[in-house]
Amino acid sequence: MLTLADLGDRATLTVSETAELLGVSRDVAYESARRGEIPTLRLGRRVLVSVPRLLTLLGAPIDGADVDEGSPTTGGESDFL
């Protein structure tokens, strides 16, 4: 099972890896990405999830720094569509 500690220096995850990390089904992760609830970017035909933006969304520390506890955002519309 993928955990936050496994992310290391990765910049992106696949939607399937994100589903595993969040403990949701692949279908739920893809639907959430489509709705913009999970921060995605598109490279060609690939849909990837930005690790820093996902960690911010989850309120998890990035590089040992505490993330602001304010209301996180996904940075606007998803690039999934």
Alpha carbon gap, first and last residue: 28 Å
Number of helices: 3
Mean pLDDT: 81
How much of the polypeptide forms β-strand, as a percent range? 5-15%
Secondary-structure element pattern, one letter each: EHHEEH
Q: Output the CATH topology of the domain at 9-58.
A: Arc Repressor Mutant, subunit A
Number of DSSP strand runs: 3
CATH architecture field of the domain at 9-58: Orthogonal Bundle
Regarding CATH, which class of the domain at 9-58? Answer: Mainly Alpha
Write down the overall geometry.
globular
Structural class: alpha+beta
Strand order of the largest sheet: 1-3-2
What Rg do the Cα atoms give? 12 Å
- Please outline the major beta sheet: 3 strands, antiparallel
Structure write-up:
The protein has 81 residues and is α+β, with helices and mostly antiparallel strands. The protein has a domain at 9-58: Arc Repressor Mutant, subunit A (Orthogonal Bundle). The protein is 31% helix and 15% strand. The protein contains three helices and three strands; from the N terminus they run E-H-H-E-E-H. Strands 1-3-2 form a three-stranded antiparallel β-sheet. Strand 2 and strand 3 form a beta hairpin.
List the helices and strands and how they pair.
Layout: E1 12-14, H1 15-22, H2 26-34, E2 40-43, E3 46-50, H3 51-58
Antiparallel strand pairs: 1-3, 2-3
Helix pairs in contact: 1-2
Write out key terms for the chains shown.
3 strands; Arc Repressor Mutant, subunit A; 81 residues
